[in-house]
Amino acid sequence: MGKKLYHGAAYYPELWDEKVIDEDIKMMKQTGINVVRMGEFAWSNMEPKEGQFDLSFFINVINKLYENGIETVMCTPTPTPPIWFTDGHPERMYVERDGRVMGHGSRQHACTNHSYFRERATLITEHIAQAVRSLPGVIGWQIDNEFKCHVSECMCAACKELWHQWLEERYGTVEQLNEAWGTQIWSEYYHSFEQVPQPGHAPFLHNSSLSTMYQLFSMEKIAEFCDEQASIIRKYSGAPITHNSSVMFSVDNEILFKNLDFASFDTYATIDNFPAYLINSDLWRNFKKGKDFWVMETSTSYAASLESYASPHPNGYLKAEAAAAYALGAEGFSYWLWRQQRAGCEQPHSSVISAWGKPTVGYANVLEVEKMRKEIEPIILATRPRQAELAITYSDRAKAFLKTESHRGLNHRALVTDIYEKVLSMGIHRDLIPEGASLEGYKVLLTPFIPYVSSEFLARAKQFVENGGVWIAGPLTGGRTESHTVHTDQALGELENTAGVEVLFTYPMDNSGTIGRAFDVSAPLGMWSSVFEFDQEKSVGMIEQGLSEGKSFINEHCLGAGKIVMLGSMPQGAEGALMLQKLVDHYSQEANLSLRTDVTKGTIVAPRQGDGYSVWFVINMDGNGGSVTLPMEGIDLQTNRKVSPGKLEIGKFEYRVIRINDKECFR
């Protein structure tokens, strides 16, 4: 990989005859598709009968594509085991929480932890890697497809045995597990690891520790499977390996990508939710720091299945999506899919070409993307994405905690996206970073909605603050232990000591009539909240009405050269949004954030760094146009003309690429 920007599509040649394949390749060349992904659902074509492997069809297609200038990302086909694997073997299948056993069909129907599945997955992957390792057309690998997209935690007998092994490795003795989980409650006490159940069907809710730990167990096991597959491929191929994931799936992306070579994601966000598209780029850029990511799947126009469909993109939006992805660090931008499927459950899904071989409603937009790709390719290849100065912590582990303790439907992805959207609309360049990411180079760190703060994270965040950073923690951060229990020394555990606050109460403020005031704004407060003792010097936000009137909900604490800010409650409504933005603005100014512009809402600036210069990609995402102020004279790299300092107007779904000297790139 490298030396180019990739513009691709998922391709399923096993579904078509040779004549259609030849037509597809011809049209791909005309369209500008220079890479395809294939093989992820073709296990039955590669091993039609158990032990009978035949990769010749795919070898021929890969070679034919390469002869026409189209490269291949080869996939392992493990999400769809063939009928010979499943027929008559319910013990190999995924089991739902209510005990229902999956049958053959659809995908992800097998348990990926079953020993025979692992054995057959190893064999098919080894045969694929051996067969295609010397083909010049294979530039990368994708393991499986969208782990845990349709399923989450399997409850089969094989998983139960592995669960007990995992618990023993984690806790050492069952007595330590009992102590950590507080199992004296409701007579849950266990005398051996073998007695610990899976969190299946129950009359009421399971112990929080049981539910959350089983999720973490499942996340670790799917990452383990991914690592096994990668190690097999690496015996035969030096091409980089990825997996296509999402913040929506029941995985821990941080550990999933740890041992892979590059990160890639799927997204089908519609224009009315474009921040949910952008947040992926700002997060996936940081799973493999310094390496380009791929948008492995997105729709040319709309997502659809037999039971649902999304609104089509307006003309021009796809180009804006692709420009944003490339500017924010993508090497590849790929569609699902090339030719519409004529059968199966995703027949209605948008594509580049229809099942009958004609351009679809999104085709003209694909051509726009290709034109744009060619134009910006030399600029992208000569620059790198700028690291932001403000980071928002994203945690799939926190996602598990909030799945267990969702209260009124709390969802980590949606909650963080809401915070992200507010920062985005302020024109602040931002990174989303996993919990284990380095904090070097950041000035402001936001850590919202992370119930468990590890001692390791706390130590790094404390050092970040002592070195001059501003850490804004909360809401819903720090209130649970590693085993998902309540702290017994103080409400927020060690975080409370580090942040220099005293939590008096924690309770849900929704519909309680609680009003808080901070930064000259009064707003209703909601969600599960922490109330602090009022301190004249430390209190930034005061509760002026409600059960805890006169107490504090925002406290700041100086530590070393920096500051910890505790946000104890979530401001609500329009006034709450304004309060949050004023909070971020206040501390961004205190931290002297420079990577910020006055870009209008709905338009973004994606800054990239060249050798002694910066490049601003200014992209309108909402179709309403926008503007940004240039601090000094620049060069429009599309026209090679000078651009005067001052307001730069951006049209509907337009992108502009402006080169500016480093001295005054941002205000």
From TrEMBL:
Belongs to the glycosyl hydrolase 42 family. It holds the Pfam family Glyco_hydro_42. It catalyses: Hydrolysis of terminal non-reducing beta-D-galactose residues in beta-D-galactosides. It comes from the Bacteria. Its EC number is 3.2.1.23. Gene3D superfamilies: 3.40.50.880, Glycosidases, Golgi alpha-mannosidase II. This is Beta-galactosidase.
